[in-house]
Amino acid sequence: MDIPSKYDAKSVENKWYDYWMKHGFFRSEPDEREPYSIVIPPPNVTGVLHMGHMMNNTLQDVLIRRARLNGYNACWVPGTDHAAIATEAKVVAKLKAEGIEKSDLTREEFLKHAWDWTHEYGGVILEQLKKLGCSCDWDRTKFTMDDDMSASVIKVFVDLYEKGMIYRGYRMVNWDPEAKTTLSDEEVIYEERQGQLYYLSYAIEGSDEKVTIATTRPETILGDTAICINPNDERYKHLKGKKAIVPLANRAIPIIEDEYVDVEFGTGCLKVTPAHDENDKNLGDKHKLEVIDIFNEDATLNSNGLHYEGKDRFVVRKEIVKELEEKGFLVKTEDHVNKVGTSERTKAIIEPRLSDQWFLKMEELVKPALEAVLDTKEIKLFPSKFENTYRHWLENIRDWNISRQLWWGHQIPAYYYGDGEKDFVVAENADEALAKAKKQSGNEALTTADLQQDNDSLDTWFSSWLWPISVFNGILEPENKEIEYYYPTNDLVTGPDILFFWVARMIFAGYEFRGKKPFSNVYLTGLVRDKQRRKMSKSLGNSPNALKLIEEYGADGVRVGLLLSSAAGNDLLFDEALCQQGKSFSNKIWNAFRLVKGWEMADIEQPEYAVTAIKWYKNKFQQTLKEIEDQYSKYRISDALMATYKLVWDDFCSWLLEMVKPAYQQPIDEKTYREVIAIFEDNLKLLHPFMPFLSEEVWQLMEERTPEDALIVSKWPSQTDFDTEIIKNFDFASEVISGIRTIRKEKNIAFKNGISLSLINNEKADSVFDTIIKKMGNIDELSYVDEKVDGALSFRVKSNEYFIPVSGAIDVEEEIGKLEEELSYTEGFLKSVQKKLSNERFVNNAPEKVVAGEKKKETDAIAKIATLKERLISLK
Question: Do residues 241 and 287 touch, judged by C-beta distance below 8 A?
Fold first, then answer.
């Protein structure tokens, strides 16, 4: 067989991926086998492959490929998420570049543009995942805006509303002024930022007295509707019932009392702006204060902002501070660090805003999810350290704001039929809504033309929380054979950053709509960071092009490079050198295959060393297999790969093949050859989940195979008992071989010359590996002695002493040359050190440690010169 000298990843990867697809190896249908199912964390429909996707999906592919080899009916469901905020922003930007404003379009017109965008760019990432080797059941690909997926979301909304769990309320929400939509609490990232505390003077109506208020947001004074003091604060008791004048606005506002005010913070006086702070809103409700909203939806000031109308909030902050100072209202400013909420999607600073929104009650949904993870352990998190985070989030959860002021997404199925905001019904479609509206209003004359559907859409996570159920159509057809067979799924692989956004919510949905957990295990990966520990991102420009990495190092090389450093829950510090390491591993395996296939077989007796070597490796394989199975059970995929890597690189390639390799131009016995091939095949099975392309290529080149015999659907090696004694004996023998090789190298003993080896066996080491020690060390004679051998080179392994006679073993002339060269270098080094020490300025001025270091160098060099001279005398 003509095997190429180099492994060509590019041609191999295309060939075998097409082969796997052609023969339907990724497809799954319910049958009599035990299922193993995982669902892909759906990437944004308009996304492209980045390092985080590569790591996450490689881990999933490892699990799904191993499940196939273990005989499970493996089903990996792929798909994408419509990513409402991100996609709408991209479509709006594209339209703006074409001179079109979203506000000039109807909803239907805008959605046509959004679908065009999705059809053009959507799904690119799934095609890229194929390059990585991901073995998803592509026939099952889902999109969160597919008709059946959308129908599932609407059905769930109606169901929850009718249960009294969804309600509409006028509440303070997190407003993203860039995306112009609300966000849930979990989509707000709080960052510490350096700001300023502004001390402002408010005049007391009808007197010359003034009070000073401290604020971080001076622009919001235009929305002030009260000043609040603590009733126990003696400084301000006399102000009770009076009014203060808002600077610039010249409005009189009441001075109220409430123990909410912290006497110690700032001046002890609090300005109350109910429209722009949640705590202020609570005070406003309690004291029946006026609510003055000063912001437009893009965070520019509205008509309540006086002469600042139309200007951005941060521009106004600078300008209003200047005006307040000029007019004598600014007392002083101080540096102040505070936590600022930012949008998880757009990074814009969040604006608290009062708004009518839809909310989902969380109190009851949380209970089974807490119990499943923390009490019964029905769902396990790997690593378990994330249980505390999970507990904290769920025990402090608030009702979920599920409405978004976006057009791209699932439109809320609420239909308004009258003048009041309470005149609405919730239904799955307009016809059902009409019937409900007629009944609710008592007006039989209503038509669908009288219905106005809510303009908002649902939070994207409100669709993806159904993902493990809806991909198997378990909402619309709750008893269909697929949901009954594949649900609950087995493993979920995702990042800890969406533990609450997605993982916890899927658990809520699983128990609410199926009465079962959605998955058994959650493997939380770390984030991919660069060598400086920075999260990889486009803005930093520190994320390499994923496809270019595959092109340069091969998919298998990149997979190995990523996984070698991706322990569960720990961040991966990505270094391209890891991919080179993966590529080198591919080449090592390929060269080992070429070596084995290059051996000529002959009908000769199997040597004793080969019998021992193969027996050792089979036991070592079983020991490693047990370790690998344990690592897989703990989702320590990186450790499972490292154990496989060491087994194949060190034990198989570096030791076994060298131990059984026939002498130059000599044949190998058939028994050894067949056993080595069988061992190689078992190694390929362990490698396949990590390196699917290379392993399939070598497997198929081993011998002619039918599709039924392909590696991807072969059988994972079975575990058997193993002999630890032979493994321990080999470890000892390998140290002996290393000792012989070290002496040969140091003393220039040519390997072409056999030598004799004597040993004092204090360790009572087994002689089972003696034939291998002789072969690997090129030893002619190995003898056991009771006393030291005079004039011999020696080394130790534990308490055993090994001796190699000098006579005839060393090329004397070459050794003399080496020693004289080393002597000359050392004498030169000594002179340079002594010259430095003879310099009084150096000795007197250099630190004591430095001088002491130089003196030690002098002593060591003198001792080494004496040793070298003695050795030369003995050789001459």
Answer: no
Q: Work out the angle between the directed axes of helices 724-746 and 770-777 (0-180°, nearest 10).
A: 30
Q: How far is CA 646 from CA 378, 639, 655, 657, 728, in A?
A: 34, 11, 11, 14, 17
Instruction: In the chain, list all ranges with CATH 3.40.50.620.
Output: 9-143+463-521
| Dihedral-angle region of residue 136 (phi above 0 means left; psi in -120 to 50 means alpha; beta otherwise) | beta
State whether the Cα torsion 475-480-482-484 is positive or negative: positive
The arrangement of secondary structure in 726-810, i.e. its CATH architecture, is 2-Layer Sandwich (3.30)
Name residue 706's beta-bridge partners: none
The CA distance from 461 to 628, in Å, is: 36
Backbone angles phi, psi at 237, to 5 degrees: -55, -35
**CATH number for the 813-875 domain, one of 3.30.70, 1.10.287, 3.30.160, 1.25.40?**
1.10.287
SS3 category, 489: strand
What's the CA gap between 376 and 382, in Å, rounded?
Answer: 15
Query: Residue 620 and residue 651: Cα distance in Å, rounded?
Result: 8
Tokens of 491: 């493993």
Provide the CATH number for the domain formed by 181-351 in this structure: 3.90.740.10
Domain limits, CATH 1.10.730.10, in the chain = 546-684+692-701
Amino acid (one-letter) located at 650: D
The residue with greater pLDDT, 729 or 565, is: 729
**pLDDT, average across residues 289-297:** 92
- Look at the domain 9-143+463-521 and name its fold: Rossmann fold (3.40.50)
pLDDT digits (tens, 9 = 90+) for 441-482: 889 999 999 999 999 999 999 999 999 999 999 999 999 999
Q: Per-residue pLDDT tens for 479-492?
A: 999 999 999 999 99
